Amino acid sequence: MKSGKVLTIGIDIDGTVTSPSSIVPLMNECFGKNLRYEDCLEYNLANIYKITDEEFADWLDQYGERLYHEAPVHGNADQILRSWHQEHKLIYISAREDRHREVTLNWFSRYHIPYDEVDLIGSHDKLASARKWEVNLFLEDRLENALQLSEELEIPIFLFDTPYNQGVLPDFIHRVYTWEEVNHKVKQLFPQTASR
Length: 196
Hints:
Blueprint: E1 8-11, H1 23-31, H2 45-48, H3 53-70, H4 77-85, E2 89-94, H5 101-110, E3 117-120, H6 127-133, E4 137-140, H7 143-153, E5 157-160, E6 173-176, H8 179-189
Parallel strand pairs: 1-2, 1-4, 2-3, 4-5, 5-6
């Protein structure tokens, strides 16, 4: 087996490796609502739940640990990431804060999800981190991130389809619906990965 990794893949965690709908039941429970995931037509859930950004930040302070602990895996992300790790470098770049490192790494361990680095940057601006790790492609669910990364880095972005990221996409951004589809598209875009 060759020692070098073929690709360096940047991967968001929430809504990408975890199920994008996982936050809704907990927010419903806490705010006494009965919203559906399909009702979340914008990324900023403070607007959806009609609360202030400060109230959402306070809620995340209080419930972030539970949210990150309980989040289910998105489809068969765990299986595909295990298969990728044999030939690709997996760099997770998340807006989670570093104080959630322990719960994050415990979650990765519980689902046997491999990683080379977990970069919890505490911000939605992932550009500097993506540059630092020299990623060749990026997996994301937030449209604004996908647009910034594709424009600045000119690399392929796989955007997982959600109610809150609809719209016309530029050439570098590929809307995807399942992890199987991502796996297939990686092999299409990077033929050297399909020859193993």
